[in-house]
Design goal:
disordered N terminus, 32 helices, nine-stranded mixed β-sheet, twelve-stranded mixed β-sheet, flat, disordered C terminus, alpha+beta
Length: 960
């Protein structure tokens, strides 16, 4: 019996697949694409997290990332021979090999750059007369006998340092080498000698036998201790005066370490182990942090001491690097979870719509099987087998493509996601069909109208979803997307819940305006308008699933586009805040002024639209806060760009802590034009163009200057609150005068501080500008050439180069790519939802046209009928999607901070809050595509129906 059942199943599956190969292929393609996206997402997250961790370790300073094990010199109670043996190469190499074996996973060493040896921790003064003394202070040297010198350097001149005789603690002559940079700065030549005193004040002669050039100057071998490669001019901490001296390192022969034991320079034994991040993955970050903590002060340190000695210590900054990476990952993950849940929900709804379409197309066939005695289990089993034959291979192929396309991630999350897609599709069709055919039916009800009124259970379910959505949005607005325990899925699902509520509301409300519009259409002579609106108002094509898919897709696309736009805007604003304009010319120091000739030359360059010379003086002391007088109103909207009068706020409360500010002297006209060109708040130039006692100083009338002059000033809100509305005296390098606040501004170009005073530079005693701000697109080469011709002490900053400095780390770039994919996938699924919705009612539409053509309906009228019927639903769905996307962004923007995605990891970047804003392209373009596709599909359906005869559509016995 079982053999006969299996034999009967195989022909059924083959027959069904041969009967409808197009439907089976379309379902397989949809499952393939969805499984690929589902499997690629976790792999992409793993990949960018892994690349980000490796990038942070590789690009970090070697002094921070290297693991250094160090212990003091052997004890004086030991025999001299034993002490000498412990600091020689063989013993140090043996300990180093043991340390490599004790490193716990996932920490692995870069064995090509491991170094060990003996070094001094206390620099020794070198009194040789030929050494440079910049401020009459002799240089100081550190000495190191480090392994691997020949492997990590090339010999520039001389010979490698060697040990012709065995070096012991009693040796008084050793050989050494220095790098090219050390030789150039400290005037060291081959054959020079430097004396290093022992603890007994006996000299050890160090002969420089060679000058070496590092093979990889930025590698850990040379950068773990930068003095190995490059000398440094440092201040003398023991001197009461600001004097400097040179400090550098002499590289001794590898086996010359015992000679350092007799010195008072406090030698230590060390092993530098740089990490190899090649094998690290994103999930390894937490384990790596725990392992490093154990090595520094835990069980790992005990294992290290078993190998290196009981006094060994482990020092590294690798833990801080990994912790910073983890903080960025934890900040980005909740934002990514919003996109993942949105696209996942859309994909699930579209797959359910596909199952509903297949079930609707086969309703008559399955109803016939049920009426002739077919069991629900038998019908469901046949559908499950038929679907699995197509879906499971497509899911497996999607997983394979995801593995091939996205490398570097774990395989099992992607496998679970792809399996979930296949399982959803395999189960959706049998379950839906089984529920529809619990009771056998001879024929179905009318398919061109909604046959059921929403039940009480549905109302309760919708109210429950409404409460969940309100709670999720409220939680997101209050505490943001990040939670202490990780990603909060309920909070991340807030956009999905908002779209779900909007879909349920639209399902209930959308027939009402259509039915109201159908009443006046009924009074017109033509029947097309009334018939199309009447059918659109009662059609089942705009059910919950199609609307839910559309709103979810449009909201997700809008949210993703807003994230991308917010990241770009944040980086643009940060670059503008740093440079102040499209280009900036300034001196190397804050007080360096620009000559008039340089200002004229740069202003006349091709591509320069406007040049605004300004004078910036930082650290201007402010007078005491005005008690009870109040300053300019700083509690408004913050920009205060157009304010021209003093307010009456409490100055001590707002500006009491402001003790210094930056004085900015500007030309009001050129600076106002600069503000307009760069998008800054409008600058009130008129109040600064004062006359009378505060008028501009003539070039030959210096006698009119004095501390009693009152200059109008635009101030930041805090400074305005401190100064009040009365004139206040200030002492500056630009002159002594009084300032009276006549307006406020929240931001000023080219000034890093938020506390400032802007005055008319023409009224200053010292008018020479310190900065020249340029707008336009000058040629960078010509601009730099013109500035260099004026002197090497002037520098050029370009806004475009500053913007390029915010180069994405792998983690940021990966997160941005995911959001770009979310926008594209959301738009694609929205269009697919429209297509599936229209295809579900396509047979009924074709039958309707065939019947109406028998009554005299022309081809053109048929096309207009289908277009008018599909357009209102598409417009309502697109409008609902626009509103849902806008509402989602407006509701969630206070709780979403894009700083980790936009500016994290960039030194000196403006890391103020970066919030979402509505991106019109990502909001409007998919919605317009929905309407266009609906109209196009309706037109194609009408054209195709016109090619088929009415007899073909109206066959005898057809239930349609």
């Amino acid at each position: 019996m079982r053999h006969n059942e299996r034999a009967a199943s195989a022909p059924w599956i083959r027959t069904r697949l041969r009967t409808a190969p197009g439907a089976a292929t379309a379902l397989a393609v949809l499952v393939l694409v969805t499984a690929f996206l589902a499997a690629a997402f976790p792999r992409a997250v793993d990949a960018y997290e892994s690349k980000g961790l490796r990038h942070d370790i590789l690009t970090a300073d070697a002094g921070r990332s290297t693991l250094e094990v160090a212990r003091p010199q052997p004890g004086l109670e030991l025999p001299q021979a034993q002490r000498d043996a412990e600091v020689r190469g063989p013993e140090l190499a043996r300990i180093g090999a043991g340390l490599l074996k004790t490193l716990p996973a996932p920490l692995h060493a870069d064995t090509s750059s491991v170094a060990y040896g003996v070094r001094t921790t206390k620099p020794a003064v070198a009194n040789e007369p030929w050494l440079p003394r910049p401020e009459a202070v002799p240089p100081q040297f550190s000495y190191v006998a480090q392994s691997g010198l020949k492997e990590h350097a090339t010999l520039a001149s001389g010979a490698w340092p060697t040990t012709p005789r065995e070096v012991t603690s009693d040796s008084r002559e050793v050989q050494g080498a220095v790098t090219e940079e050390t030789a150039a700065e400290l005037k060291v030549k081959v054959g020079a000698t430097i004396e290093l005193l022992t603890a007994a004040q006996e000299p050890i002669t160090v002969t420089i036998t060679g000058i070496v050039a590092p093979r990889d100057p930025r590698g850990s071998y040379w950068s773990a201790d930068p003095l190995l490669r490059t000398p440094s001019l440092v201040p003398d901490p023991t001197s009461p005066f600001p004097v400097h001296f040179w400090t550098g390192t002499v590289l001794l022969a590898e086996d010359a370490g015992p000679a350092l034991l007799s010195t008072a320079a406090e030698p230590v034994l060390f092993w530098r182990i740089p990490p190899d991040p090649a094998g690290l993955t994103g999930p390894d970050a937490d384990r790596l942090t725990s392992v490093i903590a154990s090595l520094e002060s835990g069980p790992g340190l005990l294992r290290v001491r078993e190998v290196a000695g009981g006094t060994a210590m482990v020092a590294t900054g690798l833990g801080h690097i990994v912790e910073a990476n983890t903080r960025m990952r934890d900040a980005i993950s909740p934002v990514i979870a919003v996109a993942a849940l949105g696209i996942g929900s859309v994909a699930a709804v579209v797959l359910l719509m596909t199952g509903a379409l297949i079930a609707a197309r086969r309703r008559g066939e399955l109803a016939l099987m049920r009426s002739r005695g077919g069991s629900l289990r038998g019908i469901g089993g046949r559908l499950l087998a038929e679907t699995a034959v197509t879906v499971l291979p497509a899911s497996a192929l999607g997983l394979l493509l995801a593995v091939l396309a996205v490398g570097g991630g774990r395989w099992w999350p992607g496998a679970l996601a792809a399996a979930g897609v296949g399982l959803l599709v395999c189960v959706a069709l049998p379950v839906r069909t089984t529920l529809q055919h619990i009771r056998p039916t001879l024929h179905g009800a009318r398919e061109d109208m909604v046959s059921a009124r929403p039940s009480r259970r549905r109302t309760v379910a919708e109210l429950t979803l409404l409460v969940l959505a309100v709670g999720a949005v409220t939680a997101l607005r209050r505490r943001g997307t990040s939670a202490e325990g990780g990603t909060d899925l309920l909070v991340s699902a807030a956009p999905v819940l908002v779209a779900l509520i909007a879909a349920l509301v639209l399902v209930r409300l959308y027939p009402l305006p259509l039915r109201l519009a159908a009443r006046p259409m009924a009074r017109l002579r033509g029947a097309i308008g009334f018939l199309s609106l009447a059918r659109a108002g009662r059609s089942s094509a705009g059910g919950a699933l199609p609307l839910l898919a559309l709103l979810l897709a449009l909201a997700t696309a809008a949210f993703g586009g807003s994230v991308i736009a917010g990241i770009g805007d944040a980086r643009d604003d940060a670059a503008l805040a740093s440079v102040g304009a499209d280009a900036r010319v300034s001196g190397a120091s804050e007080r360096a002024t620009l000559p008039d000739a340089l200002v004229r030359t740069v202003s006349d360059l091709d591509g320069v639209r406007n040049a605004a010379p300004i004078r910036v003086e930082y650290g201007v002391a402010l007078p005491e806060a005005v008690a009870g007088d109040g300053g300019t109103d700083a509690g408004g909207d913050g920009d205060g760009a157009g304010s021209d009068r003093a307010g009456t706020g409490n100055g001590s409360a707002v500006g009491g802590d402001v003790r210094a500010a930056a004085l900015v002297g500007v030309d009001p006209a050129s600076y106002a034009e600069l503000a307009r060109a760069t998008g800054l708040p409008a600058f009130p130039a008129a109040p600064l163009k004062a006359t009378g006692a505060s008028a501009s100083l003539p070039e030959d009338a210096k006698s009119e200057s004095g501390p009693e002059r009152v200059l109008p000033a635009i101030a930041s809100p805090a400074v305005a609150a401190r100064l009040g509305k009365e004139p206040q005296a200030v002492d500056t390098l630009s002159g002594d005068f009084k300032v009276q606040v006549v307006g406020t501004a929240s931001r000023v170009a080219s000034v890093s501080t938020t506390n400032f005073l802007i005055v008319n530079s023409a009224a200053l005693e010292q008018k020479a500008p310190t900065t020249l701000l340029l707008t336009g697109a000058p040629d960078p080469g010509r601009l730099r050439a013109a500035v260099e011709a004026g002197g090497k002490e002037y520098a050029v900053q370009l806004r475009s180069e500053e913007r390029a400095r915010y180069v994405n780390t792998p983690m940021q770039a990966g997160a941005e790519r995911i959001y770009l994919a979310a926008v594209a996938a959301g738009a694609g699924y929205a269009l697919l939802a429209v297509l599936l919705s229209l295809l579900q009612t396509a047979p009924e539409r074709k039958t309707l046209l065939a019947r109406l053509r028998t009554m005299g309906l022309t081809t053109g009228q048929g096309r207009r009928l289908l277009a008018f019927e599909a357009t209102p639903q598409a417009l309502l769905a697109a409008g609902g999607g626009l509103f849902t996307g806008w509402a989602t962004i407006a509701l969630l923007s206070p709780g979403v901070d894009l700083v980790p995605l936009a500016l994290a990891g960039v030194a000196g970047a403006d890391t103020g809050p970066v919030v979402l804003r509505t991106d019109l392209w990502s909001l409007g373009l998919p919605a317009a595509g929905v309407v266009a596709l609906a109209a196009a599909v309706a037109g194609v359906q009408a054209w195709w129906a016109s090619r088929r005869g009415s007899i073909t559509e109206l066959r005898a016995g057809d239930s349609r």
